[in-house]
UniProtKB/TrEMBL annotation:
It comes from Sphingopyxis panaciterrulae. GO terms for molecular function: DNA binding; sigma factor activity. This is RNA polymerase sigma-70 factor (ECF subfamily). Keywords: Sigma factor, Transcription, Transcription regulation. It comes from the Bacteria.
Length: 168
């Protein structure tokens, strides 16, 4: 027995939008409560019975999420809690100069890791990582199999992991 078309469509919508809504709540209320509020937003949308007829379900979901957040703020204000402290979000951040230095060091380490690889392996890895190409597209462009692309990228990733393990 298969699920009704609207349930299948909602499942696909949920998979596509969950990370965005979760990110919204994570920024607004912190990591601890974000998952529960994300679930509540999707349950309200599905429970409304309007999903199948909505022209812009993403905007409707965003409105539901914003309303949930605002209701939560109002409730906290009544209880006297304005903004809870989230250590990951509100903690001290390292100076910008240190971040740039660490980023440069990591990039240099990656280039040192990739340099000894064969030209083809390095090219395939960079096509995937820098240009964002899918394995199938790389395989088609270079005239190799998808499995060959996987093997080349696997070699490059293993080499990068070994180099970054030495840095930490």
């Amino acid at each position: 027995m298969t699920a009704p078309a609207s349930a299948v469509a909602f499942d696909a919508f949920y998979r596509a939008e969950r990370a965005r809504v979760h990110g919204f709540f994570r920024r607004k209320v912190g990591r601890d409560e974000a998952a529960d509020l994300t679930q509540e937003a999707f349950m309200r949308l599905y429970g409304s019975g309007r999903f199948a007829t909505l022209e812009y379900p993403r905007a409707y979901l965003a409105k539901i999420a914003r309303n949930i957040w605002l209701n939560r703020l109002r409730q906290q204000r009544r209880q006297g809690v304005l903004y809870p402290f989230d250590e990951e979000r509100d903690g001290v951040t390292p100076p910008e100069q240190e971040r740039r230095f660490e980023g440069k060091e990591l990039r240099r380490a990656y280039w040192r890791a990739l340099r000894p690889l064969s030209r083809k392996t390095r090219r395939i890895f960079l096509m995937h990582r820098l240009r964002g190409m899918a394995y199938r597209d790389i395989a088609d462009e270079l005239g190799v199999s998808c499995k060959a692309v996987e093997n080349h990228i696997g070699r490059a990733l293993a080499r990068c992991r070994r180099v970054t393990a030495r840095l930490t």
